[in-house]
User: Fold Transcriptional regulator from Cellulomonas xylanilytica.
Amino acid sequence: METATLTHTSALARLGHALSDETRTRILLTLREAPAYPSDLADALGVSRQVMSNQLACLRGCGLVESIPDGRRTWYRLADPHLASGLGDLLQLVLAVDPTCCGPDCSCA
Assistant:
């Protein structure tokens, strides 16, 4: 088993921050399937282009996505291919989580 370093801790904290917002989570899950242009992502997720721009900037700042210039446009993809399989593994774990826990009305604390 690999020992966690400060780099690992920081990377997981950034991923946790990204996943704490539903729109950012949906972006990551969509990019898991294929790279996309921001306007296409905004349309697919039903958010404004401004919201998409802000969320992609956050994900870029966290090091989770990267932008690729394509002429006058830019498309986005996951920054590391391991992220796609990691997200898939996390989706498997969600099935075992109590849906009443850790939500807005959580009484776990």
